[in-house]
Structure formats: C-alpha cells, structure tokens
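Late entry, written up from scratch paper. The run itself happened at the end of the previous shift, but nothing got recorded in the book at the time, so transcribing now.
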Amino acid sequence: MTGFGRGVAERGALRATVDVRAVNHRFFDLKIRGAHVAPAVEDAIAHALRGAGVERGALTVTVHLVRAHATAHVDRAAARAAHAELAGLAAELAMPPPDLALVLAQPGVVRADATATPAAADDDATSAAVTDATRAAVAELATMRATEGQALAADLAAHLDALAAARAHLAQHAAAVPAQLQRRLADRIAKLAPDLALDPSRLAHEVALLADRADVSEELVRLASHLDQARTMLADTASVGRRLDFLTQEIGRELNTIGSKSALAEITSAIVAAKATLEKLREQVQNVE
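Output as recorded:
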C-alpha cells in the first residue's frame, strides 16, 4: 500500500523533520536517508512502522535535522516609514502620536533571521526528537493507508462477488454435463454406425466413465471455500496480504483444473471470464498490507 507521512518535533533549538514514503512491495524493505542516526534510532523507526501495522512495503524514511539560532533586528527605514504614516494619520484624526511599541508592531519593522545548521543524532535529545517526529509521521501515514485500505476492500469484495457468480454459473453447467455427454456420444455413434443397435447399459457405462473424468464437484467445493475465506479476510484487521496472495493462487489452480476437465464450450467460456476477473483480483491483492 502507498502513503506519505510527515512529522516534526523540536527539542530546544533542534528541529527534527521525518518524512515517510511507502509504495507497494512484497516484503518489508526499509531505507533510512538524510541525517545519520544512531542504530538505536533506526530500530525505533522500524518499531514505530511495525507498530502501526506496516508489515509489507518499500519504505523510505528521510530524516532532516537542523539547529536554529534565531536573531532579531529592527529595520530602521521601515520603522521611520511606519512612524511617519501613523503620525500623519494620528494628526488627521486629532489623536496622540504613535508610541514605539505600536511602530515595532507594524509588519516588516522587526525581522527575525534564523540560521539553520545541520545537526547529527549523537545525543539523547536529538534521538528523542527524531523518534517523536517519526511517530507523528507514521500516524499520518497510517491514516492515509487506512483510507486506501477501505477503497481496496470495496474493490476486492466486488471481484470476489464476480468470482462467486462465475462459480455458481460453472456449477449449473457442470450439473448438465452427464446429459450432454450422453447425447453427444449417442449422436456420434449414430453418425459412425447408423445401423448399430445401441445397448442402453453399455451406453450408460461409457457415459458414466466420461462423466467421472469430467466431474468438477470437488473443485467447485474448494473454490467456494477459497472465496469464503478471502471474504472473511477482508474484515480482518491484521495483515492479510500474503494470505490473500496465496488464496488467489489456489483459486487460479481450481479454475485451471475445472477448465482442463471439461470440454463443454459453456464451461470454457465461463472459465476464461473468471480468469480475467481473477487477474484483476491478483493485481489488487499486491497492494494489500
């Protein structure tokens, strides 16, 4: 899942800014860039991410550290101009002239110059600032990922509904397979040997053999179970990405087996449509935590 979070924390003159970017990845791949941080802080960053439920993804954490030394000075030209304007207005309104506090309060009169110098995470205060900023960034990241997760869950549910409908369609066609096999076999014999008298018991025996080879009832039961498990996982608050990935593989396996066992055009067409839906499901599962 993708997302971005930024956190800022200050300790005295030190400001720590931490940016966390996450993109899709099959595993937990963490890279820390920017200012050098102590190994203990790297562990704290990883712990904060996992504590927020981040189990998979390519994560880039950028740490910026600065020490600000702020000074202030009075822009005398701006102060004179402000005083002149205020004094003129006061004279027009027959009011007392402006005092120094009012002049200094005017925009642009007092300027703050902040000089920032790089800082390293080489003390407890700096480490604490980085850790606090990381927690804030991870919280923002988690909020964004939660919003994306809700949209993903709705899309996955729609694909599972489509696959469940395809499974019901396949079950209807599978139930009609024995009768179709019997008609097909009888028609073929009639064309090849029109004068041959068919033995009903022999014909039934051959149809039973063909129907047994084409029977997909077990595959349909397993397919229904996989779909039910996947739907249950959508409501799970734990990390389910890997389990959903495994289930999509099993769903594909059952569809392949059903397609290979049946020679009916209706079932073949339904399998093709189901595989197209499954591919959409598989692509979205790669985005799930």
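The first helix runs from residue 39 to 51.
(Scratch paper discarded after transcription.)
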